[in-house]
Amino acid sequence: MIKKYIKHTFSAGVTVPSLIFIIGVCVLSAVFPQLTENLLDSIKGYIFINLNWIYVWSVTIFVIFLVYLMFSRYGNIRLGRNDSRPEYSFFSWISMLFAAGMGIGLMYFSVAEPIQHYSNEIFEGGHHINRAKNAQLYTFFHWGIHAWAIYGIVGLSLAYFSYRYRLPLSLRSCLYPILKDKINGRWGNAIDVFALCSTFFGITTTLGFGVVQINSGLKILNIVPETSFGYQVIIVCVLVSISIFSAVSGVDKGVRILSNVNILAAITLMLFVLFIGPTVYIIGSFTEGLGNYFNNFFNLTFGTHVYEEETLPWFYKWTILYWAWWISWSPYVGLFIAKISKGRTIREFIAAVLILPTIFNFIWMSVFGSSAIWFDKNTAGGALSALAGNPDVLMFRFLDYLPLSSLVSIMVILIIIIFFVTSADSGIFVMNGIATRNAKVSPKWQTVGWGILLAALALMVLNAGGLNALQSMTLITALPFSLIIILFIVSLAKALIIDKDYYDREFSATTVPWSGEFWKERLRRIVSFNDRTSIDNFIDDTVKAALEELEKEFADHGIEAKVNYFTDPKKIEIEIQYDVVNNFVYGVKTQSRSVSEYLVKEGNLPDYEHNNTFYPESYFGDAREGYDVRLFTKNELISDVLKHYERFIEIISEHKNAIFISSDANQKLK
């Protein structure tokens, strides 16, 4: 009975070094907060100043590669088997990826960032109109396509190699075309350790900001008397408990339901501000801001501010920090996006991940940021700009200039709380997946354990003032991971080329087409619509005879083939088993399809009597699409099997196709 409760699914090679590093960094940040912060800040400063071009080029490559894939011939490749379909509705899918990606950040920075840009001294030399335009432009830049391209590359790589190649949903799987079987050794463990640590630090620091903002909002509303560590402990304990409960409930229940509720609440809040605030100004600023963004897209993308030395500190503090922040969060967000994206096509995935959240972010930032700037100039007399150094309270002070400010502030706190919970529960879910190498079933105490560890270490660091040190550690890890993501692109490009070639491979030119023999029988079948019984009989007679004759002929050549029979649904297949490569399978099964109504009354089709017709469809062991074989004679079926067998032999002889023909993949297909 005791063993039942202590049994775990952790991978020791990933979990042990990760916990040692995570706890070690958190303890140092808590015990020696100033020393640790100074040390990590100096490392971060060196990277941002001397190696910022790596971030700029990496993010640029991510954007270009995803846009290319979206419009390329690879866009219709599905993240899964060719016949797989999405597990979640489009709305639930978008809600979950959005809530996991930027939820708390949107609430924290929607007013704070535009106001901070607007009041920044590097923009003070210009007219307030230019300062407002620049504030919106750079906010769009930091929260737009570039940010989501980082998440998109990691999420796409994970989803593709997991659902298409049948590899574990793990970052190590994204390097399979480069490392091959080494992903199961130390190299793979090192990548997963990095992902787990990065995920933990990213979630901890972000939740730390969320707790501080919630505490500030509660104080402004006079619900709590002060912003203190004691109240932050209560907030963390309550919200992490809810997060653990949601994570234990699973993605289908907790995360999905909370994400759907929160996106609706956020949209309601946004519409309230839009219609109660300076509506005409907001719509106009969004429209002009969108044009400004597109006009400056390439300048922003490749900009390093090398010719504008006075703006370099701002560039490091904002753009480079954001790129590092998004990259450090990409293992967590990418894993979660991949988890919920099975069955989507590459084109659908990229379009949704790049465009829809970006448009929503632009609208959101325009509604809140532009409104805040308008109020600051026309109503507040610069009061909001004066609070630029205190972003924790900016959102709530902005709401003071709207009707029902207290009620709306409560709504904001509730939205932040739900974003907190969805970020934490999806983070707990992802961390347990990394630590267990994506075990299908894990004991619930593991999920609870990650939540407790997350809360305990976050509070320990928050109490000691070591949150900045932890944030610096998170940003430092982004540099090596940006290079790892570049390798993801190399692996993905290599795999997609092989994938397309594999599924588009034509039959050999030596195959003999139909000669025209037995044309009368073929014509009869063409103009006939068949019921299930006649198709089952075709399989039992013609197909069975063809495959059994092939079975004997293969045996004469020393090849062990086996004919397998199935009754529900009716199907028959010939299978040649291999130890190293995928088994060769060619089968025929009974399928049905509906026929258009106008054919029912068509006099030239006298055999048609029903709304459905049945036909025998071929299928194969590698998820390629089959076709109707009802016109084939026995010999033509034999010829068709041999065409596929010749193609199979040709493909397995090429080393580059190893992933598609491995015996491991075959077992998972089974």
From TrEMBL:
This protein's UniProt keywords: Cell membrane, Membrane, Transmembrane, Transmembrane helix, Transport
Pfam families (UniProt xref): BCCT
InterPro entries (alphabetical): BCCT_transptr
Membrane-protein topology: Multi-pass membrane protein
A single GO cellular-component term on record: plasma membrane
Subcellular location: Cell membrane
Listed GO MF terms: transmembrane transporter activity
Spans through the membrane: 12-32, 52-71, 91-111, 140-163, 190-209, 229-251, 263-284, 320-338, 350-375, 407-435, 447-467, 473-497
Entry similarity comment: Belongs to the BCCT transporter (TC 2.A.15) family.
Protein name, UniProt field: Transporter
